[in-house]
Amino acid sequence: MSKVKSSETVKVVVRCRPLNRKDAAGVTGTPGGRGGIIEMDVDRGQVVLRNPRALPGEPQKTFTFDSVYDASSRQRDLYDETVRPLIHSVLDGFNGTIFAYGQTGTGKTYTMQGEWLEPERRGVIPNAFEHVFTQIARSTADRQYLVRASYLEIYREEIRDLLDPNPPHTLELRESPESGVYVRDLTSCVCKSVKEIQELMNVGNQVRSVGATDMNEHSSRSHTLFLITVECSQTGPDGRQHIRVGRLNLVDLAGSERQAKTGVHGERLKEAAKINLSLSALGNVISALADGRGGHVPYRDSKLTRLLQDSLGGNAKTVMVATLGPAPQHYEETLTTLRYANRTKNIQNQPRVNEDPKDALLREFQKEIARLRAQLSHREGRGKHRKEEGWDGEGDEEGEEEVEKERKLQEERLEEEKEAIREDGSLLAVEKQRLLGENEIMMGDLRKERDTTEQLTAKYKVHTHIYREESLGVFLSLPPPLLSCPAHLPFF
Ligand SMILES: Nc1ncnc2c1ncn2[C@@H]1O[C@H](COP(=O)(O)OP(=O)(O)OP(=O)(O)O)[C@@H](O)[C@H]1O
Ligand SMILES: [Mg+2]
């Protein structure tokens, strides 16, 4: 099923957000505290953390990462340097994960989503949408792509489908040798453009759990995972079609929080308890993997760690964006985030190209098209007129018109015959009745034939809804029965 096996570490980058009004109280009176307690050396990928209550002579703590992004960094910088290569790998058939990790209010959602309406402030997810579809549009004509998306959240340790308006209470996790850990019955929608995939994200964002706390007005109260599956079919050197499947997990975690700081009560407090529990399970998984001794890894301790099983220590290329706030009053939390980020750098993954998996939907889809095409050719007797290769449905409309014309002619002939029988004075009444009856049966057969062909043609068109963006990328859209997708979504 797969090849190109190699090992690589999880890539870890750190981002610090600017000081905000809430931080200001803590910064006032901090000696030299222009940027709070964090200094970054972008060229060296270093973060220097200063303890605001340090004893005289206590050294500052320095950490080095693959890249660091300071408070003046732009969304685009992070995307181009850190995310872009990951998206290319996904299009080549690797699994890829990017997850944002850090204390509440430090910029995880800002980094992953950003401000959709301001191009400069768009985050990883909208930029990834653009990128995926632009790359597909630029790819060579011999490649066919099928892009699907799902969106879920883990809220109080339950998995919810954000694209299903009437979801069952909670979805279950399953595991298979082909796709690793997956969510059973999760909605998966085919997307043919940036607009369509954005609409999906909007649908999900409207129902994801967000609430206000003292530390963040729009605090994520759940972990979210937006999954994009890209299947690509291409003719190999052996002349056969080969399918590669890349899965991209875009993960926006909820942040760790202390009740004393967030001031949460009631439901918010219960949410916080579950958030902290699953984040500590994630911390344990990171620690177990990072020590490199190959001991037990407690993936099963939370839904989050099970879902991230392939991303941490498995078949995926993974990027962690650890987010920090610069305020001195959060020194301990910032140090904890940096320590976990530092440990994560040691995690070894084994990413490989997922080639020709049995469950590729593209193959199922191609088989269905071939079957419908054969049926249509047979029905309309136009098999020999149609080119076997490159039949893209365009010349087909001409063919359909011809067949329709022929059918009309036959109908007219039958109508004329009917008239002639009626007006023929030499026929006995009984004979006339018999001939008119035969004429009616022939007319009925003709109509039935037309209806069946129309149905087949319509089905075929749904299957081969092929369009080309710009010039080359070819998309195939899958018919509804093969995928679960809520009917209210706009593109079926
Ligand atoms: N790099 C940044 N530049 C400008 N503003 C930022 C940046 N990072 C975060 N912010 C702002 O800080 C606030 C909190 O950010 P955000 O909601 O992304 O935090 P979070 O880590 O997702 O928190 P939570 O864990 O509570 O969901 C938001 O108003 C956001 O716009
Ligand atoms: Mg958030």
Question: How does this structure look, described?
Answer:
With 492 residues, the chain is of the alpha+beta class. The chain has two domains: 8-349, Kinesin motor domain (Kinesin), CATH 3.40.850; 357-472. The chain contains twelve helices and 22 strands. The chain has helices at residues 21-27, 75-91, 108-112, 124-138, 194-207, 259-262, 266-290, 303-307, 331-344, 361-380, 394-423, 429-463, and strands at residues 2-3, 8-9, 11-16, 38-41, 46-49, 61-64, 67-69, 96-102, 144-155, 158-161, 173-176, 180-183, 189-190, 210-211, 219-220, 223-235, 241-252, 317-324, 348-349, 353-354, 467-469, 473-475. Strands 3, 7, 8, 9, 10, 13, 16, 17, 18, 21 and 22 form an eleven-stranded mixed beta sheet that branches. The protein has a three-stranded antiparallel beta sheet with strand order 4-5-6, with helices on one face. Strands 1-20 form a two-stranded antiparallel sheet. Strand 11 and strand 12 form a beta hairpin. Helix 2 (75-91) crosses helix 4 (124-138) and helix 11 (394-423) runs antiparallel to helix 12. The longest helix has 35 residues, at 429-463. It is elongated, with a radius of gyration of 30 Å. It starts with a strand and ends in a 17-residue tail after the last strand. Residues 29-33, 382-395 and 466-492 have low confidence and may be disordered. The protein binds adenosine-5'-triphosphate (ATP) and magnesium ion. Residues 108-109, 220, 252 line the site of magnesium ion.
For the secondary structure, the number of strands is 22
CATH architecture of the largest domain: 3-Layer(aba) Sandwich
Strand content: 15-25%
Fraction of residues in helices?
25-40%
Shape designation: elongated
CATH homologous superfamily title of the largest domain: Kinesin motor domain
Number of helices: 12
Q: What is the CATH level 1 assignment of the largest domain?
A: Alpha Beta
What profile does the largest beta sheet have? 11 strands, mixed
Uncertain residue segments: 29-33, 382-395, 466-492
User: How many distinct domains?
Assistant: 2
